[in-house]
């Protein structure tokens, strides 16, 4: 009888071991003093919560862990088609840490799950380098990951990726939107474009438009592929800069990461039952990629339900401090906009 | 021009919202007092590290977070073929928490990532109920998750799942194998079968054998499908029972979760450079599914490289305490075996 090996079944354990070694340097580039040296065989990653007892304890007397998970959806199919995989990892980190910081958490650690048909170290290294870059920008440690080689589940060349992130916030200081009140000011931070939501729709529209990803588009000032692959912005530095500026008073009452569901659904999630958010449509810049999508068949109302439309992250702040928060953001190179206010209402987001 | 909506592209945001509501009760079934009530819009899950300041602080003066991620590989394809999706979630939790506990960590929280072609609430609910069951058994909170609907990446009916888990261990008490020494005793905990590694090989062998998943096999005492789909055992309770029994002395010097790479590679990961592990082949029970696989074309040496061969988790303990640890495990219904000893050597695992 013929003998069957794991390699015959499409899985190569020693290649996997080499791959794990190869990504070690990308992981190490994200390590701070709180990562516990890996003496252990790598079953799990270790992260000290009190890396400097006195300092850290003063910051977090009652630490609350914050955790979330997200993927990048079918944006990865665009990256694969363009054979440009070095930024999709930034998207992956961004989708997770931007969620974490909405509660005021400090991102601590990140893990990735990559699912492929077959290990292709060169391409995967690009992905992991992007993840490590995103982790460095977010100040979190890439503590571990899993690369699953599943030839029967994924087509050759296919790739899916999921990320997981953990942060910490002081108990009682978590920002949950419950203190959002009338007259609070809504500040928007610009997105870089579509970010990582709505790509099934984006890809359908592109397919029907006849425009190729490699086509240069005058309206975009770049190729269509470059416009839709641009990495998701990471807002960690901006949000931490604002939160650190006001330690004694809670100036920020709510924050939202604008993902699937768009401005309306994501801002509504943090509104109290008796408040509306009134947004002034002309107050922020809408990147040209959204004009492209609108001109190729997506109705405006649908666009606002699916995409961020130019605003990737929203802070709701006390009116007295709105100008001061704007200045804080501008001083680190951010371009915030006062895009609206909170009014008495019924948990709706109105865009006029 | 025809208008294109997100729904046309195969994604239904309101179905997704309903789905999130539907799984809330499964998630709540895993919540202990440390989960912070979800006032926030659900961007991230919150978990208090000091749910009872005095008690918890006494346990963890210098908490170290432990994190890991894993999937279930192509075992999910067996579950899909058998249309039995209520245990694959247990596998997912097991693969993660069994990794966590190797360092002596207490599992705290879990998150899942599900990738599908199309939301099928009935089937996915089965998956999530399994995840929740695994979380309850492991004592960790299912704090969040992401269900990604990607019609262009997955075939109708396809499903991939990844898990992520965080635990905590006292700094300086993390078990990393560095204290493993000559004469330490190796105790094995039985697996339930193949667990969740090597399924690309398992499936290839089954395909070539001509035996159907629905066929009853005398040697197995059940259908082939039942044998290969049996959920991965979770060893949290057992390991915690042992660790809690010896608070003052470190009786357990190393632990390994036997996953891809089998007994040899996984035990070698926690051996010091100057020690070998000598395992007595006849000392543990090899479940009949492994005979089936061997009889259908996998060489014995290959089997030991890929599968757990009947031992899912290994504890290495000080020789003076070996019998006492055995008794501790037996008193909670476990069936441990003394399967070998540590000898002077060169970080090899020898099975004789």
Structure description:
The structure is a homodimer of 352-residue chains. In chain A, the strands form three sheets. A six-stranded mixed beta sheet of chain A has the order 9-11-6-12-10-13, with helices on both faces. A four-stranded mixed beta sheet of chain A has the order 2-5-3-4. Chain A folds into two domains: 158 residues, PurM-like, N-terminal domain (60s Ribosomal Protein L30, Chain: A, 2-Layer Sandwich), CATH 3.30.1330.10; 167 residues, Alpha-Beta Complex (Phosphoribosyl-aminoimidazole Synthetase, Chain A, domain 2). The model of chain A has no long low-confidence stretch (mean pLDDT 90). The longest helix of chain A is centred in the middle third of the chain and has 18 residues. With 352 residues, the first copy, chain A, is of the alpha+beta class. The first copy, chain A, contains 13 helices and 13 strands. At the A-B interface, strand 1, strand 2, strand 3, strand 4 and strand 5 of A face strand 1, strand 2, strand 3, strand 4 and strand 5 of B. Strand 2 of chain A pairs antiparallel with strand 1 of chain B, so a sheet runs across the interface.
């Amino acid at each position: 009888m013929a003998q069957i090996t794991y390699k015959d079944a499409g899985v190569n354990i020693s290649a996997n071991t080499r791959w794990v070694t190869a990504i070690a340097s990308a992981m190490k580039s994200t390590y701070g003093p709180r990562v516990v040296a890996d003496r252990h065989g790598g079953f799990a990653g270790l992260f000290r919560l009190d890396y400097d007892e006195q300092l850290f304890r003063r910051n977090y007397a009652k630490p609350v862990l914050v955790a979330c998970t997200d993927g990048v959806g079918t944006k990865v199919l665009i990256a694969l088609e363009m054979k440009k995989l070095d930024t999709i990892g930034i998207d992956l980190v961004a989708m997770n840490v931007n969620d974490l910081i909405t509660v005021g958490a400090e991102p601590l650690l990140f893990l990735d799950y990559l699912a492929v048909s077959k290990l292709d170290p060169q391409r995967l290294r690009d992905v992991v380098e992007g993840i490590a870059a995103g982790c460095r920008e977010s100040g979190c440690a890439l503590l571990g990951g899993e690369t699953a080689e599943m030839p029967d589940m994924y087509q050759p060349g296919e790739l899916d990726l999921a990320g997981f992130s953990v942060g910490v916030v002081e108990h009682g200081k978590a920002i949950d939107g419950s203190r959002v009140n009338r007259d609070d000011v809504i500040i928007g931070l610009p997105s870089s474009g579509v970010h990582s939501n709505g790509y099934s729709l984006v890809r359908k529209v592109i397919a029907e438009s006849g425009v190729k990803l490699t086509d240069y588009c005058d309206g975009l000032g770049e190729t269509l592929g470059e416009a839709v692959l641009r990495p998701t912005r990471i807002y960690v530095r901006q949000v931490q800069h604002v939160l650190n500026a006001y330690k004694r008073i809670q100036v920020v009452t709510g924050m939202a990461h604008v993902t699937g569901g768009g401005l309306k659904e994501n801002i509504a999630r943090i509104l109290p039952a008796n408040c509306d958010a009134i947004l002034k449509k002309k107050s922020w810049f809408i990147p040209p990629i959204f004009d492209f999508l609108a001109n190729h068949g997506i109705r405006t109302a649908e666009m606002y339900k699916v995409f961020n439309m130019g605003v990737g992250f929203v802070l709701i702040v006390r009116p007295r401090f709105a100008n001061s928060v704007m200045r804080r953001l501008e001083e680190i190179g951010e371009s915030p906009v006062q895009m609206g206010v909170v009014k008495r209402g019924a948990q709706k987001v109105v865009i006029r």
